[in-house]
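Give me structure tokens for this 530-residue protein.
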Amino acid sequence: MPEYLAPGVYTEEISTGPVPITGVSTSTAGFVGLTERGPTAVRLVTSLREYERWYGGPIGDSFLPYAVKGFFDNGGQRLFVGRVVRPDAAPSTVTLATAGDDLVLEASGPGNLDNRLFARVLRPTRPDPANLANPDPQRFRLQIVFYSQEPPTPLVDPFHRDNLRNRDRREPDVFEDWDDLSLDPLSDAFAPNVLQNSQLIAMAPGTPGLPALNANWTAFAGGSDGAGMDLDAFLGTEEPLTGLNGLRMIDEISLLCVPDEVNGTLLTTQLRDAIRQEVVIQCEELKDRFAILQVDGGQADVNAIQPPLTSSYAAIYHPWVRVLDTRTLDTTLVPPGGHVTGIYAGTDILRGVHKAPANVEVRGIITRDLPGNRKPLQFLINKRQQDILNPRLVNVIRDFRADRRGIRVWGARTLAADAQWRYVNVRRLFLFVEESIDEGVQWVVFEGNNEATWERVRRSIVNFLVSVWRSGALMGTRPEEAFFVRCDRTTMTQQEIDTGQLVCYIGLAAVRPAEFVILRYSHLTSEAEA
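Here you go.
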């Protein structure tokens, strides 16, 4: 109770009604894999263009860039990327001469960007306060250019475009211009701090002197992509946030995929199996995310395809899809995980997590047959083949172009052995409800464990579940048929109350997808009138 020490009128605000519960996001995804360049710390990207600015384009030994494009093509909007590098990879660097210690710049992440990343130092445009006609001699201007392919000779200057005689007019894929940089730690333009925003480079630790002016481009060198890959590279660390362990620490993620889990060129069979296990284990332990897995490529015999593990927190998809490779302007086959994850996210945004992410057309793939028997799908799965795969819990991507329905995801089963969790949308609906309520009742901790608190908890959860029912996620024509919430002396013993436990029972009648639509017909004969 408040303490009143002097006579007067006191105004108080008290909270007696139910505390609102807000539904959590279900469409934020997390991907892990190799990229052309970029930082290894987990980063959020919200478009393909943003991804390419930070991480570059397609590369030969990773499916991640294709998966990212497929994610955004199919309706995804928020994606956390964890860049993976080989353990012995090293960043490309360049040393700029100074009057004191040399100034060393290095690429934003490990990898061989030698002779594709360039830097030069120019006069700053900021005038000297003591002589407004001249630039400030204590500052410098740093320009950076990057070419994804072998650069032209001489380099095209994207800042002045003055090299008119150069027939190869290929401009850099990325260029940055950092003006008025300072090496004074007290300055608002302190170079190490400003360059943290660079998508290409970072300053190596140290206290260098002011770099000498050099209008010629200097190439970065000494980088290495590394030789071998191991599990630790994909697992990463929790501090800093890298790899799968970095994604583990991000609560917003609700969809998890490692496109390279089926990359036989990059990974051994044992390593692919280990990565797949780690992805599913993370989902099962955190209970707030769902894993999208992929069948290994080249599996032409459906009888040989078996689910790799059992879990209600994962689903697997087959076959691979054909996409355009922008490096070669040819097509290539890639695993479908990124595209399917985008369909999950897009369906959540348009319909809700209760809608099964199936019977949806796959976008961002080749949709016509090409010479050399190159079709949109690696294998054309017919109904008889799906009759084998569906009971094995393998979701299929089918070609319905003959019916003018395009290429569609035609399955919505998890890898669960328990039939209660057979469908993707049922498991993900429970994940959504559980996570939303968990976050929405944190206020209860250390509240009085009595009837008043129980009633507020019950009303908060009921109000939230009514909104879930109204969205079409639960069965029943009335809320009483869709769910129940109990939080009283029937749900907890006196011993549990005495030991600080508040127990609430919640039951949901989730909507299952109409997986088998059966239309029964019969002859209708009219009886002769008397």
